[in-house]
User: Fold this.
Amino acid sequence: MYYYNARYYDPHLGRFIQPDTLVPDPLSPQAWNRFSYVYNNPTSYVDPSGHGVPAIVLVAAVGFLAGEIYAGTQGYTPLDAEFWSYSIGGAATFTYGYFLATDLLLVAGIGIQEAGLWAGSTTLFRWGLRATSFGARIYTWAFQPLDFSSWRLRRGASTNYLRISQIRFTQSEVSPEFGKGPWKGMTIPEVAEAVRSGTITFDHPMEVFLKTPEMDAWPMTIYTTASGKMYTGSYANLQNGQIYTLNNRGFTTAILAGLDEVPVTWASASRIVELSYQFDTPNFGTSVLLRGYNLTISVPGQ
Assistant:
């Protein structure tokens, strides 16, 4: 048993035996596992303290200081009631402005999404989605302890790997062709065969995330094609506590290639929301249909 000043660590379990005292980022699924350390990625990140103060306290403090400075320019001192009126008023104004800016960002993001749907512009819709996601994030920062020295990316960080059996699909089916990336123009079976023969190395990390109950309250994306076809998913189709991939085509390739593990990177909250229209798996992601081949691909061990 090891004591790291704040929590005890059990090397046999590979876990802290006490939960973290805070959830550092409510919009990150990995952060809700309070028994882990830096997203279960200590090779990439370091958290020197793990504590801080809520963002809204910092905002209010800056407003209070601004009020003091303004009061001083008007000739008031701490012995004057006006001095404290300006100081407290500055704190209240900055706090109100913080939440007003957040609300405007959320409303603007939703408006941009609606404009994107109306104009049939995927780019415009995604910009609106990013604005909404960022607005939600800075709103939660108001009540979450911040530590600007924490969770630094280590220099020369190595890639995470997960076993195939630990991951599930988010989609019910995938098309066989790769439309972008290093395998553009190839099909899933072609790439899988190339990986098996050693002519292609599966070294591009897949985006993954941990499904948590809190995600059920997150916004959902609706994707509409140029022809008017609408795609929508649901977080309810995903099982809590399970790791899912956002790269279903790549994951299908890895299974067909017979890989035991794959390189992964943890997806951001905005990325999860952006692709949430794809979450239509009917069986909690244990299998996917490969279109054009009438072939069902199942996750080994599921």
